Amino acid sequence: MVTGGSSGIGLAIAKKCISEGAIVLITGRSEEKLKTAKLQINSPNCYTYVWDITDIQSILLHVKNVKEALDGEIDCLVNNAGVLLPKQGFLNVNEETWDKTYATNLKGSYFLTQTLCDQWIKAGKAAKVLNISSQGGFCTASYPYRMTKWDMVGLTKGLGKLLAPKGIIVNGIAPGMIATDMIHRSSENVYSDLQVNKRLGLPEEISELAFFLLSNASNNIIGQTIICDGGYTLNP
Question: Which CATH number fits the domain that encloses residue 125?
Answer without folding.
Answer: 3.40.50.720
